[in-house]
Amino acid sequence: MGYGHSLDLRHRLIEAVSAGSSARAAARRFDVSASSAIKLVRRWRQTGSYAPGQVGGQKKRKLAGHEDWLHEVMAAAPDITLSELRDRLAAKGVAISCQSINDMLHVLGYRYKKNRARGGTRTRRRGA
């Protein structure tokens, strides 16, 4: 994995290009790859900034904004399945997978842990 270039280097590269040099010639002059120079110049022309973009972070969840609704549904029907939740969300116009629903429920503190009181599942034993 590569590394980000310093703001000073980015500034010098952009100044060289704005002075009339091509992105590839500036890349050779400052010893960076032509691809990174071209992308930097493109970013500068489109946005006016040569600062790096955000690295990392989390994507916004599809169910962001539906937390209160999920709490209400889970309070009213604590034994609801993920498929039933997916169907109710589809009726609201939200197309989402069961895994995404499960992830959101975990974030909200809901768990589906099997225990003896709920019956759980057991592996089948082979006969002798």
Structure description:
The protein has 128 residues and is an all-alpha fold. The chain folds into two domains: 7-47; 67-116. Helices cover 51% and strands 0% of the residues. The protein has helices at residues 7-18, 23-30, 34-47, 67-76, 82-91, 98-108. Helix 2 crosses helix 3. The radius of gyration is 27 Å and the shape is rod-shaped. It starts with 6 loop residues before the first helix and ends in a 20-residue tail after the last helix. The model has no long low-confidence stretch (mean pLDDT 86).
List keywords for this structure.
6 helices; rod-shaped; 128 residues; mainly alpha
List the helices and strands and how they pair.
Layout: H1 7-18, H2 23-30, H3 34-47, H4 67-76, H5 82-91, H6 98-108
Order of helices and strands: HHHHHH
Radius of gyration: 27 Å
Low-confidence stretches: none
What's the oligomerization state?
Answer: single chain
Shape: rod-shaped
Structural class: mainly alpha
Number of strands: 0
Mean pLDDT over all positions: 86
| Number of helical regions | 6
Beta-strand residue fraction: under 5%
Characterize the biggest β-sheet. Answer: none
Number of domains: 2
Distance between the termini: 56 Å
**Share of helix, binned:** 40-55%
In short:
The protein has 128 residues and is mainly alpha-helical. It has 6 helices and no strands.
